[in-house]
Amino acid sequence: MVEFIGMIRTSDASEIRPVRGPFLDRDYTRRFAQAHEEAGFDRVLIGYHSWDADGFAVAGYAAAHTERLGFLIAHRPGFVAPTVWARKIATLDQFTGGRIAVHIISGASDTEQRRDGDHTDKTTRYRRTDEYLDVVRRTWAATEPFSFEGEFYRVEGALSRVPTFTRPRVPIYFGGSSADAYRVGGRHADVYALWGEPLRETAEQIASVRAAAAAAGRDPAEVGISVSFRPILGRTDEEAWERARSILRVIEGGTVPPAGNGSAPYVLNRESSAGSRRLLAAADRGEVHDRALWTATAKATGAAGNSTALVGSPETVARALLDYVDIGVTTILIRGYEPLEDAVAYGRDLLPLVRSELAHRAAAAV
Questions:
Q1: DSSP string for residues in 107-141
Q2: Which helix (H) or strand (E) holds 342?
Q3: Distances (CA, A) of 236 to 230, 239, 242, 243, 315
Q4: 3-365 fold
Q5: Residues 303-353: pLDDT tens digits?
Q6: CA distance 157 to 232
Q7: Using one digit for the tens of pLDDT, what is the confidence trace for 250-286?
Q8: Partners of residue 14 on adjacent β-strands
């Protein structure tokens, strides 16, 4: 079956909605997490920014107010020692009963990294991430003290007494669309995360990820593939497109400030990642691709994040998601422009359609 991931934040805000209430709103965070659990999501992503709330604390709080929902905590290597971070993750995984996974991001923006004191370039960050994950995985696996000496890290006699609840380790998700990203993710990722490109380009990226896994001596089938979209639903396709155009008008109007402290636009033109450049290239080739992929929102925001939409009725968007499943996607990350309300709608109208079709296929195969 396909895994569904949502995304939670600590305030009610998006590209079309200014922050309502406090930036760290406990009641909203609780309701947002519970809405995803009730909607049937498997996990929720908790993002990482230099201006944002700490993902560990958000996950711990949300886990205390849910029972089943998993948490995918984004993390940038380089700010916390790998042995320390490995114990932190293992501790939280134990206390939540195995509901933790991690999403590794090496960092797309030099400006963003420097806000937290990291002055390395992107190529160096990927080398550091590779080494970081080597130490983390050894920390989770070790039953005897171990030592490690590399380009970035040196530890002596390291041993954690805190095993992960999820054996042998928590799932590692990994993002990026560059050759360095493929190389490092191919070595370490359980799930490789991509932004929502057209089907042909997504298939090309999947092939690159699998080739990198094979080059690392892994079975490429071991690596799951995630894609991310911003579905815009309506009762009919026509209604969905009317809603999509209204969302675009707000974004293009520039009346809603960034959800953070004004730092979000740093990537729009000066420091866009390889993934952002790929989304913008798709937007230049056309506004609508395949069954329902819409690139106008990516273009309007500079593709600063997962920003392509799937537009249509629940039936149309479900078929579009299944098109990606058919080319090898195993995980789908979706979030809306009306964050909490859309999460509820996805659980009511969209997820059941996809899961029902997949169950039907599985039964037919048997």
A1: -S-HHHHHHTT----HHHHHHHHHHHHHHHHHHHH
A2: helix 339-345
A3: 17, 5, 10, 11, 9
A4: TIM Barrel (3.20.20)
A5: 878 899 999 999 999 999 999 999 999 999 999 999 999 999 999 999 999
A6: 52
A7: 999 977 766 544 434 434 444 567 888 899 999 899 9
A8: 17
